[in-house]
Amino acid sequence: MQKGSSAAAVFRPRPRPRADRVLVCLSYCGGGTVPFRQWAEVVPDDVELALICYPGREARFGVPFARDWVALRDDAVEAVRGLAGRPYTLFGHSMGSWVAFEVAAQLERLGVAPPMELVVSGGTAPHKRELRDDVPRSSDSDEALVAWMREFGQMSPVVANEPELRRMAVELLRADLGVSESYRYAGGTRARVPLRLLYGTRDAEPFPVVEQDWKSLADGGFEAHQLPGGHFYETDVWAGLPRRFLGSAAKAGRSGALS
Questions:
Q1: Is 232 inside a domain boundary?
Q2: End-to-end alpha-carbon separation of the chain, Å?
Q3: For residue range 48-102, what is the model confidence (pLDDT) as tens digits?
Q4: In Å, what is the CA distance from 119 to each residue of 14, 122, 182?
């Protein structure tokens, strides 16, 4: 992690320093913390929402993009490590599901308290990381990346119609795609905490296949839930997504409760 960037890497929409536990969120390719901020309105009162900001965006705009997958993982590890003093759930969407999986494994190697639960959303399993046909490549043209972001709701009409904002969005997506393309799963890496999979009914890959692939990496218990919608689910589902996996503190504290 870049020197002096640790504090900026964690954004708390509604700080709750006395909360019993923390929901830590890792974003998708080309994303930041903004899509997750609305969850501060729906998490239980005993939960603090902590959003990890990758380099090169938002409060870390002046920090260079991660040069490769290991750099991004290690940056996220340092941010999450600072939150591990309380019980926490680690959530990642799309590319963030791989980041969350690898961060949990790396924290275990470092002897840092693991998450109570690992929630992977909208992502294929790391050892089945073949590039999907519906995902663009870092080598694609600016026009192709803009078209993809608009189709998948990652670029508003306001941004699309403002050249400088559009350029920044394309630059960010291209950088994250390059990092994602450099990811290589290391054989033997496992999820040793309870793992919960969320996946859309209209997402690109068949749910039974994605479910079985993730289950094969889960040593600490496993659950899978198919949710309405595509890669980002239906709007109301995304807005209330934490309700789908955050239970009471007593329930969350039971290790290995999934099956």
A1: yes
A2: 36
A3: 999 999 999 999 999 999 999 999 999 999 999 999 999 999 999 999 999 999 9
A4: 21, 10, 23
| CA dist., res. 159 & res. 242, Å (int) | 28
Structure pTM? 0.91
What is the DSSP-derived secondary structure letter of residue 218? B
Residue 15 has pLDDT above 90, yes or no: yes
Q: Which amino acid is at 139?
A: S
Domain count, the chain: 1
- The candidate with the shortest Cα–Cα distance to 183, out of 123, 143, 239, 252, is 123
Residue 139 lies in a domain: no
Residues in the chain, total: 259
Residue 126 contacts residue 217 (beta carbons within 8 Å): yes
How many whole angstroms separate alpha carbon 176 and alpha carbon 35? 17
Q: Can you give the residue range of the structural domain that contains 26?
A: 7-129+187-246
Q: Name which of 54-63, 106-115, 132-141, 206-215 the model is least confident about.
A: 132-141
CB atoms within 10 A of CB 206: 10
Please check whether residue 116 lies inside any domain of the structure: yes
The pair phi, psi for residue 15, each rounded to 5°, is -55, 130
CATH at residue 40: 3.40.50.1820
Burial of 187 (0-12, 13-18, 19+ CB in 10 A): exposed
